């Protein structure tokens, strides 16, 4: 969860968000504010980790702590950190150069912050280093995104691009194979090779992947269902596809 303070700093709150920053990028953690009183075991353990880095810890009463972040469930801990880095098209190859045959996720038209946060959480769990989204058709990184992502917004690179189709073609020229999800596809995800440099593409719940993006993909697959409901929440769909790809890579 995040609140902007300036162009350089922001506030995050909640155990998962702060722990993720501490684990992944501890140098971004500037100051911690905690609620006076008895601490839970989780808070106590987190404070022990924070003290290792000699980061300032201030105790506050509930009213003062609430005033920092508004009417939110902050779990009794708030932190001031250096602003989350936002990535753009020029950062793509720098991020990807650190990984051999990476699995990446492309989200087309995910405007709901809950869905974006859940997709980021899926991506982190599946070892995805990079999520690509169109600049103008995606939810911003809001407090809700951070809360649902449970720290993944701090660990997964989110790259916003101006022209998604152009970016796909650019990565295809670098050897990436793009697999789009489509309920009308002939082959299902479980009969599709997902090893190597692969990008999974999923679209918003209402319209799915846009036509231009669909025809730009190298292949289209569906997720088989046997019930009356054939459409899945986008975060569920992304999780199914990412973990099938992970399963194949672990065999």
TrEMBL record:
Keywords: Methyltransferase, Transferase. Residues 11-87 form the RNA 2-O ribose methyltransferase substrate binding domain. Gene3D superfamilies: 3.30.1330.30, 3.40.1280.10. CDD domains: SpoU-like_RlmB (cd18103). GO terms for molecular function: RNA binding; rRNA (guanosine-2'-O-)-methyltransferase activity. The keyword Transferase applies. GO terms for cellular component: cytosol. PANTHER family: 23S RRNA (GUANOSINE-2'-O-)-METHYLTRANSFERASE RLMB (PTHR46429:SF1). Belongs to the class IV-like SAM-binding methyltransferase superfamily. RNA methyltransferase TrmH family. This is 23S rRNA (Guanosine-2'-O-)-methyltransferase rlmB.
């Amino acid at each position: 969860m995040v609140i902007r303070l300036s162009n350089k700093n922001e506030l995050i709150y909640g155990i998962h968000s702060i722990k993720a920053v501490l684990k992944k990028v501890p140098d971004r953690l500037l100051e911690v504010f905690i609620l006076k009183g008895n601490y839970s075991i989780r808070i106590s353990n987190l404070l022990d980790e924070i003290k290792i880095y000699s980061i300032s810890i201030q105790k506050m009463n509930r009213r003062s702590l609430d005033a920092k972040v508004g009417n939110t469930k902050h779990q009794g801990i708030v932190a001031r950190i250096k602003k989350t880095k936002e990535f753009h098209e020029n950062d793509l190859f720098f991020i990807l150069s650190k990984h051999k045959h990476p699995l990446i996720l492309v989200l087309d038209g995910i405007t709901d912050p809950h869905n974006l946060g859940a997709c980021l959480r899926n991506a982190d769990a599946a070892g995805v280093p990079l999520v690509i989204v169109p600049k103008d058709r995606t939810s911003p990184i809001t407090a809700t995104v951070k809360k649902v992502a449970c720290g993944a917004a701090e660990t997964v690179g989110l790259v916003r691009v101006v022209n998604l189709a152009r970016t796909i073609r650019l990565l295809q020229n670098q050897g990436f194979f793009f697999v789009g999800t489509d309920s009308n596809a002939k082959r299902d995800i479980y009969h599709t090779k997902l090893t190597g440099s692969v990008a999974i593409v999923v679209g918003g719940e209402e319209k799915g992947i846009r036509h231009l993006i669909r025809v730009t993909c190298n292949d289209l697959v569906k997720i088989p269902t046997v019930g009356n409901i054939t459409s899945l929440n986008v975060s569920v769909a992304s999780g199914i596809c990412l973990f099938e790809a992970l399963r194949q890579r672990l065999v």
